[in-house]
Amino acid sequence: MKRSADLDPKRDERRRLKEALQLNESLATAYYLKEDLVQIWQQPGKVSARIVLDHWIADAESSGIRQLMKFARMLQTQREGILNWYDHPIWTGPLEGTNNKIKLLQRQACDYRDLQFFKLKPLALHNSQHALVG
After folding, report:
1. C-alpha to C-alpha distance for 23 and 45, rounded to whole angstroms
2. Going by C-beta distance under 8 Å and a sequence separation of 6 or more, which residues neighbour residue 78?
3. How far is CA 50 from the centre of its chain?
4. Which of 9, 52, 110, 129 has its CA 20 to 30 A from that of 81?
C-alpha cells in the first residue's frame, strides 16, 4: 500500500516488494497503476490531468482485474468532479476530521439530556478550531 518513495530500507521493503511483484502479475499491475494514479494531481493543469486520468482509466479497464475495472468505472463517473480540483484546489481532510468528531459526539449523545446542547457541541468544535488557526 505504500508509495515506492516511502519504502523503508531498514526493513528491506524495496527488495520484498520486487519479489512479490515478480510472483504475482495482477499484484504488479495493480501496484503500478496505484503508483500512476498519483500523476493526476501532479499535472500543471486540468487539460493534462484529463489526459492522464483518461489514460489511467483505459489502462485499468484493459487490465483484466475486476476490482481495477470497477474502480475505473467509478472514476469515470466522478471524472469531472475529480478534475474540478484544478479549478478549486481544496482538500476535504479538515471536513472529514470535523465529521469524525461529530460522529463521536453522536455516540456520546446518550449522556446529553438536552438535544439543544447536543446541537451546539459541533459549533463549539468549529469555533475552537478557528481560534487555534486564526
Report:
1. 37
2. none
3. 18
4. 129
Residue type, 110: C
Mark residue 64 as left, alpha or beta (left: phi above 0; alpha: psi -120 to 50; beta: remaining): left
pTM of the model: 0.58
**Summary count for the chain: helices (H), strands (E):** 7, 0
Kindly report, residue by residue over 94-127, the tens digit of the pLDDT: 878 888 887 887 777 666 666 677 667 777 766 6
Rounded-to-integer distance, Cα 113 and Cα 37, Å: 48
Q: What's the gap between Cα 7 and its chain centre?
A: 19
For cell 474502480, the residue is 71
Eight-class DSSP state of 30: H
Alpha carbon 66 to its chain centroid, in Å, reads 20
Closest CA to 37 of 63, 19, 16, 11: 63
